[in-house]
Amino acid sequence: MLETTRIYIADISVLKKASVFESFLKKVPEYRQKKAMSFKFDKGKMQSLGVGLLLQLACKEAGLGGADEHIAYGENGKPFLVDFPDVQFNLSHSGERVMCVISPFEVGCDVEIIKGDRGRLAERFFKPEESAWIKHFDSIEAQSEAFYRLWTLKECYMKVTGRGMSLMPDMFALHVDENENISLNHDGARPEYAFREIDLHDGYRYAYCVKTDGKNAPQEVKCVDLA
């Protein structure tokens, strides 16, 4: 039984080389091959293949080899393993990074490339107190990083609930205290959700959220080299 939440992250830039892409494409299940090739642009193809490779590896290392070959989707599009309903997973991609989290808990994850000033987006989609927290940083660079910290954390929560974008980011609030502890208020405090961030200092922000119901949630982070 899977007892540890495992986070897999990879740089997919190696997939830009056609021969490498074709080699890896043959290794994933047929549905993933078709999904990857359904994208019009190479970026989408690479990202779809990349998350498929990470899910395949995550299942294999969890002793669930082949579980990634049977995927279904919930009402709002959240994927799950048909043959192992007690094992949860989630996928994300942005730019040249892909991310997969597999866990014994309900889980959502997100990776985002950091792109400049996003103050107006924060005012539009975040709670006033969240926008104020972003603005209290001195530089545009620090404010941008703060925005993407909240954005990834919010996306994680939206995904772990299974509601996705039907749960708008201004419908709940996240608070980061002086000790970097993250708390959620969604119609009241929700301590059963645990948030984690990963900073690889690579121009991206990574985060995931698990619904632990107060249980211990050990984690293991693995950066995968696709070369």
Extract low-pLDDT stretches: none
Q: SSE order, as H and E? A: EHHHEEEEEHHHEEEEE
**Beta-strand residue fraction:** 25-35%
Task: Tell me the strand order in the biggest sheet.
Answer: 4-5-1-11
Q: What is the CATH C level class, in words? A: Alpha Beta
Principal-axes shape call:
globular
User: How far from one another are the termini?
Assistant: 30 Å
Q: With helices defined by DSSP (H or I, 4 residues minimum), what is the helix count?
A: 6
Task: Say how many strands there are.
Answer: 11
State the CATH architecture.
Answer: Alpha-Beta Complex
| Structural class by sheet pairing and helices | alpha+beta
C-alpha Rg (nearest Å): 18 Å
CATH superfamily caption: 4'-phosphopantetheinyl transferase domain
Q: Averaged pLDDT, please?
A: 94
Written account of the structure:
The mean pLDDT is 94. Helix content is 32%, strand content 28%. The protein is α+β, with helices and mostly antiparallel strands and 227 residues long. It has one domain (5-224): 4'-phosphopantetheinyl transferase domain (Ribosomal Protein L22, Chain A), CATH 3.90.470.20. The relative contact order is 0.18.
